[in-house]
Design a protein that fits this description.
By secondary structure, this protein is α+β, with helices and mostly antiparallel strands. It has a domain at 21-62 and 78-91. The protein is 31% helix and 22% strand. It has three helices and six strands. The strands form two sheets. It has a four-stranded mixed sheet. A hairpin with a 5-residue loop joins strand 2 (39-43) and strand 3 (49-53). The chain is globular and about 50 Å long.
């Protein structure tokens, strides 16, 4: 189905926006992976993971992670905090958070379906 996908198994997207971003990346031949890595953000005193973050996409040629959110802007605080925490713990990791307004702009430009 996807020509530029670089993962082992067919991805199962959580929402329509992720599927549309995947289609866009694929259309332009940008190699991508879906949720290939989970980053530990916090552990308890016994070393158990208490918080983790799995960005939606990884673009290996750009060494860039992408997180897609179509939640209302007022509800993205948690994702913003996770991205900030990831940057604090791993400043070498490049990550970009795409908001609903970014998706709307891209969807309009490229004739994609807008997620509800």
């Amino acid at each position: 189905m996807f020509q530029a996908f670089r993962g082992a198994e067919t991805p199962h997207f959580v929402n329509e926006a992720e599927l549309e971003y995947a289609k866009l990346l694929d259309y332009y031949g940008v190699p991508w992976m879906y949720e290939p890595h989970t980053f530990v953000l916090a552990r308890d005193e016994d070393g158990r993971v208490t918080e983790a973050f799995t960005p939606d996409f990884y673009l290996p040629e750009q060494d860039l992670y992408l997180e897609v959110t179509v939640m209302k802007q007022s509800l993205v605080t948690r994702k913003n905090r996770k991205v900030r925490r990831l940057r604090e713990l791993h400043p070498e990791i490049k990550i970009k958070l795409f908001y609903e307004r970014d998706f709307a702009r891209i969807a309009s430009r490229y004739g994609l379906r807008q997620a509800s």
